[in-house]
Amino acid sequence: MDYAVIGQRVPRVDAREKVTGAAKYAADYSLPDMLWCKVLRSPIVHAKILNIDTSKAERLPGVRAVITAKDFGGWTWGFMATTRDEPPLAMGKVRYLHEAVAGVAAIDEEIAEEATELIKVDYEELPGVFDPEEAMKIGAPVIHDYRPNNVSVEYHWNYGDVEKAFAESYIVREDRFKTGRVTKGYLEPPASLAYYDPSGSITVWPAKQSPYFHYRHLAACFRLPLSKVRVVQPFIGGGFGGTKNDSVAGDFCAVMASKKTGKPVKFVYSQEEELSTSKRRHSMITYSKMGATKDGLLTAVQAKVIAEGGAYTAIGPLSMYLAGSSIPIPYKLENFKYDGYRVFTNNPVCAAMRGHGITHTRFAHDLQMEMIAEELGIDFIEMRLRNAIDNPKPGTVYRTVNDVTLKTCGMKEALTAIKKDPIWAQREHTPKKVGSTSFGVGISGTAYSGGARQLGHQACGAVIRLCEDGTVNLLTGATDCGQGSDTVLCMIAAEELGVKLDDVVIKRVDTAYTPCDPGSYGSRVTLLAGQATQIAAAEVKKQLLEAAAKTWSIKPEDIQIRNSVVSLKSNPDKTMTFENLAKLACYSGSGAVILGKGYSSYGLEPLDFKTGSGNSGTSYSFTAQATRLGVDLETGHTTVTDFLIAHDCGRPLNPIGAETQNEGGAVQGLGQAIYEEFVMERGETQNPTFLDYKMPRSTDVPDIRIIDIITDDPDGPYGAKEASEGSHVSAPPSVISAIHDATGIWFTEQPVTPEKIVKALKDAGKWMK
Amino acid sequence: MKEIRITVNGKPYELSVRPHATLLEVIREDLGLTGTKEGCGVGECGACTVIMNGKSVNACLVLAPEADGKEITTIEGLADGDKLDPIQQAFYEIGGLQCGFCTPGMIMSTKALLADKPEPTDQEIRKGLEGNFCRCTGYTKIFESVREASRKSRG
Predict the structure, then answer these.
(1) ipTM over 0.95
(2) Do B139 and A689 touch (CB under 8 A)?
């Protein structure tokens, strides 16, 4: 494969704006005569709202509008038609601490803030429930009347015959695993500038990684046709799922205040507001039973997963789907049973985050396989190699018991690459103990789905406009929230058209002009917007080749275009510049307008939420990760020195981008493994600051090496699969496997903090003091 | 209101500011230099790092009156017309950024670090950027960018 642009190490197309400070994010926008919006939040965790008196706030000089739930006429939103339980502002009841109750728009931020304090809300406090297993008990406080048992989502799936398989197993283990209460941790808090103009149209400049969700929310909430909702995409300061896929109270209040006042209205959440109220990852408890033969071959898995959902459903049905449907990859498994419960509590809402759903059960099962391997005396990589799904031969498909289909699988190749590397091969020859520090090497082998599909509209679109000077405008509905998709999409357009990368200019989303797109989630953009871009470019190229063929009186298929030079395949000396061809094509006859359009077609198989059968993604990535670290046996402090990540993303199209995604994903996973957790006390987040909610800093991160496993999946542009989330899923089990190697202790709850390590060392009589 | 005189990116300003306004607010709102970002507003993330009289500071923790008489450089003050500063050029080429929200602060901290230590060790790079939080990149390419910037700056 001889590509001109694909596979090259090129700077990001947005790098110049970002290094000069010219890139504008939502909070950087302003309009003349703009008002500021602030949100009033509930000081009570669970309560009926008896009355809201806004009169004092309205009388404060400088206040222009006060918004409460009644302004929204009972509108609510949610992932499925049956789960639309979330209002823009609390309606009749508050269900978590600091839930938004009212909004104020005023001439400046300070007056808006002051006015929120003048709003008098009468509450009747209700008992709260904060632990999902407590919330499932009969008699627990009911959070939503439509779910009297507090179970917001429930699945029971059964494949093969687990009972028979366990009975026939040589070894069966039952363990409990838990993932922590963690958050996306992006640096840019939610913000938007909104204008409801006199013609009755909405324009917003919001911080959204999936702007078309917001577009639909605003149209539905304000009862407007979609054609009157314009979302203009600023630069986005990180996404990672959840909040920036969704809308927040500030979004609705700002638009409503603009509608009421006729002025533009802006809001910017504080980071503390973000950390204490915005959507975070589910914490999931997995009760897992796993069986194996004497040779370590997996026989069956039974997983009961209880997820803390927080106060509303959000995207919970999909979170629980992914946690279950991914159980049979990347290891062969004929029998599995999944009982998933997502449970309401009076904590902030839980939703999607990088590694969505899959990270919880993969963590549990990857570690539990090692526990079994240890009992059987089998090397941890060997255990995984014996069970890993083979790479299907070209043209064939591997099908799991629940109809997840793989056309490529680099799991064995990735594990083998790690096995050969000195970090693993020489691990017995590196010092095990220096002073009070015990060193360990851990491994993981995980899978992730890419090119996500869910319900409803799923296709990405792309439009390419050729300019008469030979440069190109690329329009897609995809959002680059930092992952690098704008760069890779430009690379694809340049590759297909045969032009230089610099000649392709991508426009960020503007729903008035760009094609509708589901959003930047589920590692879908390179695959689906990438395919759409390929198709759009092919359409433009076809028109150009026809124009060239006419000029040269030959057939279009005899002409090639590369590096902006048009030439004859049979005689490369016969050339013209791409610019000349563009002029010829645009000016021929009465003149032509050269446009190409395309939309993605991958991933059309259905999935079934009732049975857990079918594909959640277009294709699947596989990651093997080795971690080397030291645990101080006195303080419990963990220092991670090395990550080696062997990742099968099919083919990296933009190597710098794919590497950075792997590095960033793994470091975010490291945070989850050993540092990050919201400390909750009766619904109150005790650590809603960057200081107290510890995330990895420059001094915490290991040296990271990446190995690309090339599998060239047929369902992806140039063979590409996902590269955004695989290493985020592989990091926690790899790190915790290494902590086990260093201490001899299995830790089954994230994060493995120094406190937990010291306690476990004490219990095991290994604490050094 | 309080009258202050500050020099920002070589340009003198006389401003009337609220006594409790921060330098960050003055830079972003009064001067319209939005390249300096606010991530947390309480000095925990480094996104608002600027250089004041040769030292890197969190602009959100400096009260505007404290900046009176000081010389300040923001991210907008690094490039010479179209020519990027060697640090900006290194971040651009190596790809030491993703979403870009931490980037201005990261580059300003690097500027202060390299002014102090033109050839920093890996440990000094990590320590020098500890106050600048990045959630996207995992820092690997940021470290490479700083090493490259160090080479470029020394010619």
Answers:
(1) yes
(2) no
A58: pLDDT strictly greater than 90: yes
Domain A26-126+189-267, second-level architecture: Alpha-Beta Complex (3.90)
| pLDDT(A137) > 90 | yes
Q: What pLDDT score does B155 carry?
A: 75
pLDDT at A248: 98
Instruction: Write the CATH number of the domain with boundaries A459-599.
Output: 3.30.365.10
* Structural domain range at position B144: 86-154
In the predicted model, is pLDDT for residue A586 greater than 70? yes
- Nearest CB partner across the interface for A237, out of B40, B101, B142: B101
pLDDT digits 0-9 by tens, A230-270: 999 999 999 999 999 999 999 999 999 999 999 999 999 99
Contacts with A668 from chain B: Cβ below 8 Å: 135, 138
Distance from CA of A330 to the nearest CA of B (A): 25
**Pairing relationship of beta strands B71-73 and B2-8 according to DSSP bridges:** parallel
Task: Answer yes or no: do B8 and B66 share one domain.
Answer: yes
Domain count, chain B: 2
Quick check: A437 and A632 in contact, CB under 8 A?
A: yes
- Cross-chain CB nearest to B95 (options A23, A660, A703): A660
CB B126 to CB A698 under 8 A?
Answer: yes
Where b means 16+ CB within 10 Å and e means fewer, A370-388 reads bbbbeeeebebbebbbbbb
Which DSSP state fits A226?
Answer: G
pLDDT class of A646 with cuts at 50, 70, 90 = very high
- Let me know whether B63 and B94 are in one domain: no
Domain extent listing, chain A: 26-126+189-267, 280-453+607-763, 459-599
3-state secondary structure of B57: strand
Asked if A384 is an interface residue toward chain B (Cβ–Cβ < 8 A), one would say no
| pLDDT confidence of residue A455 | 67
Amino acid symbol at A259: K
Judgement on whether residues B48 and B115 belong to the same structural domain of the protein: no
Going by C-alpha positions, the residue among A250, A245, A251 that lies closest to residue A281 is A245
> Does the CB of A28 have a partner CB in chain B at under 8 Å?
yes
Residue-by-residue DSSP string for A531-557: HHHHHHHHHHHHHHHHHHHHHHTS-GG
In angstroms, what CA-CA distances link A674 with A364, A766, B138, B145? 16, 20, 15, 27
Output the CATH code of domain A280-453+607-763: 3.30.365.10
Nearest to A238 among B125, B136, B138 (CB): B136
Find out whether A504 and A565 touch, Cβ atoms under 8 Å: no
pTM above 0.90?
yes
Residues of A in contact with B78 (CB under 8 A): 20
Q: Distance from CA of residue A98 to its chain's centroid?
A: 25
Residue A471 has pLDDT above 90, yes or no: yes
Q: Which domain CATH number covers B36?
A: 3.10.20.30
Yes or no, beta carbons of A11 and B95 under 8 Å apart: yes
How far is it, in rounded angstroms, from Cα A420 to Cα A60? 71
User: Which residue in chain A is spatially nearest to B92 when comparing CA positions?
Assistant: A15
Helix ranges (DSSP H) in A671-725: none
Q: Which pLDDT value is given to residue A620?
A: 97
Average pLDDT score over chain A: 97
CB contacts of A666 in chain B (<8 Å) are: 138
From B59, B77, B95, give the residue that closes a domain: B77
What is the phi/psi pair of residue A400, to 5°? Answer: -75, 170
Report chain B residues whose CB lies below 8 A from the CB of A24.
Answer: 34
Question: Which pLDDT value is given to residue A457?
Answer: 76
List A residues 670-729 in contact with B (Cβ-Cβ < 8 A). Answer: 689-691, 695-699, 701, 703-704
In this model, does residue A1 exceed pLDDT 80?
no
Residues B97 and B126 in one domain: yes
Residue A603 has pLDDT above 80, yes or no: no
Contact A235 B99 (CB under 8 A): yes
For testing the chain A interface, which of B101, B121, B127 should be mutated: the one with the most A CBs within 10 Å? B101
CATH number, domain of B97, equals 1.10.150.120
A205 in contact with B, Cβ within 8 Å:
no
